[in-house]
Amino acid sequence: MCENPLRALPKMDVLLSHPILLSARERIPYTLVRQAARDKLEEVRRAALAGAGVPPLEALAGEIAAAAQTMSRPGLKRVINATGVVLHTNLGRAPLAPRAAEAVMAVAEGYSNLEYDLDNACRGSRHSHVEALLCSLTGAEAAMAVNNNAAAVFLMLSALAAGKGVAVSRGELVEIGGAFRVPEIMAASGAVLREVGTTNKTRLSDYERAVLSGEAQALLKVHTSNYQIVGFTEDTPLSQLSGLAAAHDLPLLCDLGSCVLTAESLPSLPAAPSAAAALADGADVVCFSGDKLLGGPQAGIVLGKKRYIDAMKRHPLARVVRIDKLSLAALEATLLLLRAPESAREALPLLSMLGARPEELRARAEGLAAGLRKALGEDYTVSVLPCTGQVGGGSMPNEELPGFCAAVTAGPGVPEGLETAFRRHAVPILCRIHHGALLLDVRTLSAEDEGEILRAAEAVRGRNR
Ligand SMILES: *Cc1c(COP(=O)(O)O)cnc(C)c1O
């Protein structure tokens, strides 16, 4: 006779009163322990029906306690970026300056004057906290900040171009990060796309034709931040478009995507687009991300002529895409740091990472390699290799950032096993595998990160014993 395989399955109440789970319940909410126990029992039941044995009660209780522990911790957590990609979109783009993080804390835990005018004891505007700063930094007449740059583009088109024809070069109909496509965002905003020119060449005369024929009542320039067209190309700069826009009193709009406020913020990357330059070249409204080359929180920043920015502030969508107080606090603190470009290069992690000199990176890679040799032990070979970092975040894809990494080139589980061990560390460490070696690019590491990497390496050595 064949025995019912589910017989061996423990009862829920027996399981939950196992000493391991009784002790877990002191640390972890009961609902989570019960949920983990249900999930585990279901998993074991299915396996038993498929012919597997039922694990002993003790082992089940241990696994349930571990699962409940994981469920009780936040899933979103700090990780260590050893990839050398500075603005890594999957890893949260720009790390905040400590000052910006403090500013977030200061408004997060209590009340703030978010929309309250302390001088006049009346309702204030959330834009006021960054508008004057943005204007003085870039020379803009007016400014506002919204949730992110995708929202800024959407609001700009909805408020200034809905129902109008908008001329865009065929070379600028970009897709950014999957879901953001210029033609689609335009359609959603009610603006009518008028493609001008060709993929590789768009001249002023192409825009002129669209304006003179009455097809276009606004001009949009999109910075092609994540790709480049090379070879026989021609692009019409803002400085040429501004004359056309002014002559016909049409708004010249510009989605800069990833840019610095002024060239002084980031002298190590002279090719980085600058918001101040776009305004000086005659753009009426420019928008860009707060967490790309600006080095701040997720935000969409809009600068430009007062009449256009006012129309955007008044549009009903402004409320839909408004920036939250935590991001606003981080943005204001970041802008305050950017007022002093020299010290900002030290104070903003993004700027120090992008501006790090190769010799400085080599010395740091040597320090990390020495630490890793000691922590991993004699079974591993660690060396220092030159490597290339990237700006990332769809910004400046052709810009190579020469640097150095600590490379684990040989040893047990190198590279995949060691990569997995690092990735599963309490603070996950993400690195690159290249030609069979595990590379840790020091450009994107803080001193604290390096300490954590050494702790992970010691744990690997302990497990190998
Ligand atoms: C990144 C980018 C966007 C989207 O910005 P988010 O901050 O991701 O919302 C829009 N346009 C361009 C040109 C970009 O580079």
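^ pyridoxal-5'-phosphate complex. The first helix runs from residue 12 to 16. The chain has a mean pLDDT of 95.
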